[in-house]
Amino acid sequence: MRLKRQIADLAVERIERLFELAEVAAKAGQERRSDRYTQLARAIGMRHRVRIPQRLKMQLCKRCHRLLIPGKTARVRLRGEYMTTTCLRCGVQMRRPYKTPRAPSSRRAGIGPQERTNNR
Fold it and tell me: Taking a C-beta distance cutoff of 8 angstroms, is the pair 42, 68 a contact?
């Protein structure tokens, strides 16, 4: 099991490094190289069955898998409670909430599932 964990950790490190390289390449105008880096990162994740970290996954287009850089490869708009990101290559729109989550209700503070059943 320890070897599998080491392999998974190494795969995540490689994925993160490929995303860094993809961002540098995209900012330099080398879009094909950037696309190749993201393609390799996705392939490593699938091969070793590790998830791409959420913060990096949010930078990928859901349809064409291009690295989304606001102002360069993506358009970002704030609408109500959502941030809408539009990929400039394929036109798909992705919505993500950007407001902070609300605090838990005061009625449920400190009451676990077992405590609720005992109080009835």
Answer: no
H-type alpha helices, the chain: 2-27, 31-47, 54-57, 113-119
C-beta of residue 81 within 8 angstroms of C-beta of residue 98: yes
Question: Residue 50: which of 97, 17, 13, 102 has the closest Cα?
Answer: 13
Query: Residues with Cβ < 8 Å from 4, sequence gap 6 or more?
Result: none
Q: Hey, what CATH class is 2-100 in?
A: mainly alpha
Domain boundaries of the chain, sorted by first residue: 2-100
- Conformation bin of residue 15: beta by default, left when phi > 0, alpha when psi is -120 to 50: alpha
- Chain segment 24-76, per-residue pLDDT in tens: 999 999 999 999 999 999 999 999 999 999 999 999 999 999 999 999 999 99
Residue count of the chain: 120
DSSP state of 38: H
